[in-house]
Give the backbone structure.
Amino acid sequence: LPVMAELAPGTDWEKLSASGRALLAQARFGPAGLPADWVSARSERLEPAKGFPQQFGYDGLRIPLYLLRAGYADRALLAPFAQVWGGESGRVAVVALSDGQPIENLADPGYQMLAATLACVLDRKPIPTALRVFRPTSYYPSTIHLLALSLVAQRHRECL
């Protein structure tokens, strides 16, 4: 929201951002502590929304990237993502909230760049050579790849 603050300075964008981070901290479900793709706030406690797959998947994958792009590298907030994407494989997957297990592995380089970027920012791990070069694939993972590469190039060159 930093860009929005420049475009519309009369709004308290930091307050909005802080409330979003607070909601994210509350939206941790299942053993992996990940947010659901769709969350309901109809009751006092947040819960995965009914009528949607009970998973952390395509809709939620970009959350850590957007936090990092906004300058929030809070380890506590990012820990669930780092844990599920950690390890030598750096594998990104759609994850079942019920048991924290992968439902579908996402092998596209754009998705793998999410894990690599998080490891770079939190642990200063270098971005794997194969991910440093952008080669377009499908729209969504390619967009994620470009956003992550631009973040690393601008703020974390030590990982390149």
In short: The chain has one domain: 2-159.
